[in-house]
Amino acid sequence: MSDQQRQNKLIVRSVEITPPIALAPMVGLSHSALRSLVQEAGGVGLLYTEMLAAKRLPHDNEKCSPLLVRSEGEHPLFYQFVTASDEYVPAAVEKLHRLGAQGIDLNLGCPAPMMKKQGAGASLAEDRIKLTKVLQILRKSTELPVSVKIRLGESIDTAGSRSFCRFLQDEGVDLITIHARLNGEKFCRKPRWAMIGEIKDAVSVPIFANGGIFTVEDARKCLALSCADGLMIGRGAGENPNLCAEIAKNVYGERVGRQNSKTEIYFKFISLLEERFAPERRLGRLKQFTPYFAAPFTFGHHLASAIQTCTSIEQARERATEFFSDYI
Length: 328
Known about the structure:
- By secondary structure, the chain is an alpha/beta fold.
- It folds into two domains: 3-250, Alpha-Beta Barrel (TIM Barrel); 262-327.
- Helix content is 44%, strand content 13%.
- Strand 8, helix 6 (158-170) and strand 9 form a beta-alpha-beta unit.
- It is globular.
- The two termini are 38 Å apart.
């Protein structure tokens, strides 16, 4: 499929996704500051929150929780939660309704040991009985779009993956994102985009491809191999918050605004942290973001190291100013 033939708009229940490019849910990264930074550049059609614990969610205060802080412009926004039991789903969904969620995402892909111990994330995806209960109560509790994010499973099993995606669709899932790696594979492992292409025609709901997309050419290759209906951009957006805009413009032919320079982006991010988060929450978010953002720079490790040892956001701004003056 050529760039000109690609569908630039998806409707998932009542939610329009234009263009079909999503910013992935990433722990410590997909908060309000990064979402707004990426959205300001343009080209992102769908935003996700960080992973939320269904058990804790009803008790979290959206006015102060860094996981729930949201500006009016962040739209459409799907809230991702993780759970190992259907017990906590109704109250979590009720809270998301009150927060004005445009959609709800169930994490079925996180392979972290803590999630495995709890029976959540990728482990829940392996337990069909528990997962059925979770999906049924989730679908019963909301008319919002329901999405899931999955991996390719414990081992390469195309027939099994096709069957699993059909099961998800039959249980009311409206959008499936597939991270094109097996459960145990690290990010350094080349993603298996072609496997998504072998799965896609098993379902009629849209499938987004995720994993290993850092450039426009990566996006083109991923779409060619996966035949996906859209893309979910993760760490690539941390390294380059303009990436969604670049893909939207060059792959989907979308009009986007002016792209800020690397220096402008970094200081804008700091300003957004100061605007959105309590003082004690700002520096930690900057320290999580900086190693990703600094990675493409020739001497980026200098910036990452300098920020990691900062004791205040003011000191971080000073050190960043010095870095960009010397190297950019």
